[in-house]
Amino acid sequence: MKVDVLLGLQWGDEGKGKLVDFITPNYDIIARFQGGANAGHTLIFDGKKYVLHLIPSGIFRNNCINIIGAGVVIDPIALVEEIKTLEEIGVDVRSKLKISKRAHLILPTHRILDKVSELDKGDAKIGSTLKGIGPTYMDKTGRNGIRIGDINNDLNSKYQSLKDKHYLIMDRHQKTLQELDYYSTVTEEETKWFESIEFLKSFDFIDSEYYINKALKERKTVLAEGAQGSLLDVDYGTYPFVTSSSTTVSGVCSGLGVPPHAIGNVTGIFKAYTTRVGSGPFPTELDNEIGKKIRKIGSEFGATTGRPRRCGWLDLPALKYSCMINGVTELNIMKLDILSEFETIKVCVGYNVDGEFYKDTIPFDVSVPIEPIYVELKGWNKDISDCKVFEELPKEAKDYIAFIQLETNCPITRVSVGPDRLQTIMR
Ligand code: GDP
Ligand code: IMO
Ligand code: MG
């Protein structure tokens, strides 16, 4: 078997959590491969809303193993809080969750460094979620990090104990903070960190690369759940306004330890419009009444930070770029219902960059002045949130979908018309 992938094609919050939860019954294993608690994946079913940050979105379904893969960075405090919240409502997390020994740990000082780095950048700040993601990946690639597998090896380690390692890193962090004129005492958080580590010791730490490759050999089905979106990828996103991990399909290979030929279907998901939270270029942003209307109808506020999301029309050059990078085999369109109250809907089909036209590609730097070239399509102007099958959708909504399919040359196989698990149309 191969690893199917579901990932976001825009700047995150496309609705990945909703869809992963929806398709989990088709899978034996759901695995997160990158990112951390900067993600906020919302699931709604049976009239209740749940937001997951580190735990894969298959956790509510039975008979499915959820893996936090090697490429993820884990804040033990956040993970324990998430586990406890789920256990309180009766989810058997312990039997369904496995954690890669290779996943790196976020320390309280990583979060402080994140905050101070943003303060130091001033107006040029990234708009980070301040979860410590960037500094932790920096320590990982700088070969200074601690992996979660280290916490159980502690007694046997011929090198350093976890506490020694922790304080060594923390001292380095404090030096950096002092250089930035920022000294911090984190005693309370440190205590909480070590308590969370103790709590996690009884969880199942696995060699996830062996676990997943073996599962594939045994013909088990595996879905890799992306976090963030392709335009936030550290290499291919709108650098430097990106996150610090590989959010694209290549992140699945490195983050789960599977070879490229083990990648199967790649489902790319996108909103029927575009949103972005945090700083950075956004060519189709609508800093006007239309943008406000989309935000209001779409409840576009961050699931992790509560910040208002910036809103704009669908950007096809950017979508095509993401399809290419990821080798997307099928598309799923989300939040189509949010466009139901618009007489006409614009779609960006090209960029004019100082007289140079882009249609199928995007320029190296999208922070330069870009005039989006729009086509205007007729809206459907009626509620579609109860539509159960594709045929029930109004003609104009079907035309909108057909237009995107034609432009991207990729089939749209699911249409989401509401936040609930059931408000999903299969084609
Ligand atoms: P994720 O990070 O990609 O999982 O997305 P988020 O959960 O951060 O943001 C998506 C938001 O849109 C959540 O509040 C979802 O409940 C909601 N949502 C998802 N799909 C739909 C849809 O088709 N229609 C509407 N109205 N809301 C949706
Ligand atoms: P999900 O998985 C939307 C954005 C932040 C910031 C930039 C860097 O829910 O789609 P970081 O905290 O990683 O240092 O922030 O990336 N960002 C997200 N935006 N959805 C997310 O995750 C995001 N995770 C990070 O707003 O601009
Ligand atoms: Mg989100």
Q: Would you mind describing this structure in some detail?
A:
By secondary structure, the chain is an alpha/beta fold. The protein contains 13 helices and 20 strands. The chain has helices at residues 16-23, 76-88, 93-96, 108-121, 133-141, 150-153, 162-179, 187-200, 208-217, 250-256, 289-297, 316-326, 395-408; strands spanning 3-8, 29-32, 41-45, 48-52, 65-68, 73-74, 97-100, 104-105, 204-206, 222-229, 263-271, 274-276, 310-312, 314-315, 330-334, 344-353, 356-358, 371-378, 412-416, 424-426. The protein has a ten-stranded mixed sheet, sandwiched between helices. Strands 14, 16, 17 and 18 form a four-stranded mixed sheet that branches. β19 and β20 (424-426) form a beta hairpin. α4 packs across α5 (133-141) and α4 packs parallel to α7. The structure holds guanosine-5'-diphosphate, 6-O-phosphoryl inosine monophosphate and magnesium ion. Guanosine-5'-diphosphate (GDP) binds at residues 8, 12-18, 39-42, 44, 303, 334-335, 337-338, 416-419.
User: So how many helices?
Assistant: 13
Sheet/helix structural class: alpha/beta
The rounded Rg comes to: 22 Å
Number of strand elements: 20
Distance between the termini: 23 Å
The share of residues in extended strands comes to 15-25%
Low-confidence stretches: none
Short account of what is shown:
32% of the residues lie in helices and 22% in strands.
